[in-house]
Write a structure and sequence with these properties.
The chain is of the alpha/beta class. The protein contains 14 helices and 15 strands. The strands form three sheets. The chain has a seven-stranded parallel beta sheet with strand order 3-2-1-6-7-8-9, sandwiched between helices. It has a six-stranded parallel beta sheet with strand order 12-11-10-13-14-15, with helices on both faces. Helix 1 crosses helix 14, helix 7 packs across helix 12 and helix 10 packs across helix 13.
Length: 371
Amino acid sequence: MRVAWFGHQSRGRGDGLVTYSLELTEGLRRRAAEVFFFYHDVDDERSDDPRSIRIGSFNIGNHAIISSPGAARLIDATLRQERIEVAHASLSFSLLDFSLPDLCHDAGIPIAATVHFPYDRRWRLWSSGSRAVYLLWSGSLSRYDAVIVFSEGQKELLAGYGVPRENLCVIPNGVDVEKWCPGPSDYKDEIGARLLIVYMGRVDPEKNVGELLEAFTGLNLLPTYKVVIVGDGLDRERLQDYYRRDPRVVFTGLIRDAATRVRILRAADIFVLPSDVEGLSLAMLEAMSCGAPTIATDVGSDGEALAGAGIVIDPRELRAQLPLALQTLIDYPEFREALGRRARQRVLERYSLEANIDQVLELYRELRGNR
C-alpha cells in the first residue's frame, strides 16, 4: 500500500505529535506499506530519503503552521506521480489541514485525519478554549473520509459539532510495550534518591508543573525523596531558577534519547501528569507501560485510560487532591506496587502500539476499498 503521511518530524521542544508520526510511519513500513512523509521545516537541510518530502514553512511560536508558496502544487504532483492510494494527516499539520481533503479528493485519494487537540469535558477556562478549536476545525474534519480520535468522549464532542458519526473512529494512542517495559534501573542511585517522583513532558503553563513542585515541597519529605522534571518549555527556566537551591528537585531538560527516558521511568516510584488539558498523553502511557504508579488529572482521554489502574484527580481540585494522592502513594508502597502492575496490564490490554497500527492499516484498507 502506498501512503501519503502528513505529519511532524521535529520540533525544538519535542512532543507527542513527533512521536506519533515517527512510530506510526515506522510501524506501517514494517508492515510493507510504502510511506511518503510530508513534513514542515524551516531549515534548508533535506532528508536523503526520497520518500521524505519537505515543505518549507514560516515558523511561528515554534510551530510551523503557514506553508510556503507552492506547497499545494508539490503535494498534488507527488500524490499523482507516486500513485498514492490513501493519505493520512496528523493534525494540526498546518493551515493546510483545511485544504488537504480537497487536494486528495481531486487526485482520487481518500484521506484520514488524527485529531490530537486537547480537550476537557468540564466548562473551565482551558476547556472553553479547546472546545473553540474543535468547533473551528469541525467543518474541515467533516470533509475527511475518516477521523481518528482517542476516546469515546472525544468522538461525542466532534459528533456534537456536526462531524459525521460514521466517519469517527476510536483508535487510541499506543506505545511499544517491548521498549517501554518494567526492568532494572540504576537512575535512583545516580541521583541519590531513595524515592523518585517523575514528570515527563512539556513544561508549559497548562501542564501545571509548578503545582506539582509546590505539592511535593509542601510535604516536607526527606532529602532523599526527589522529584525529576524531564522536558522543556515556557515555564522551565522560571521554575528551575525558583527551586535551584532545593537539591530534591532535579530538572533534566529535554531528553531525546528514548533509552534514557525508559531508564528514568523504570526507576520512578510515582509518575505524575497534572495537566489542565490533554488529548491522550503518550508520556503517561509510556510511564504506565514501564509499570510506574501513576497520578493524572481527569482531562482529555487520560482519566478514561487510567481509571482503575492509577489515581485520577479532578483538575478543579488539583491543589487539594494532588498532595493527598502523593502522600498516599508515598506512605503505602504495597499500594504503589499494585497500581504499577495494573498500569502495565492496562497498556497491554488497550494501548499497545502494534494493535494501534493494525487498526490504522485496516482503516486504510476500508478507505481504499470505498474509493
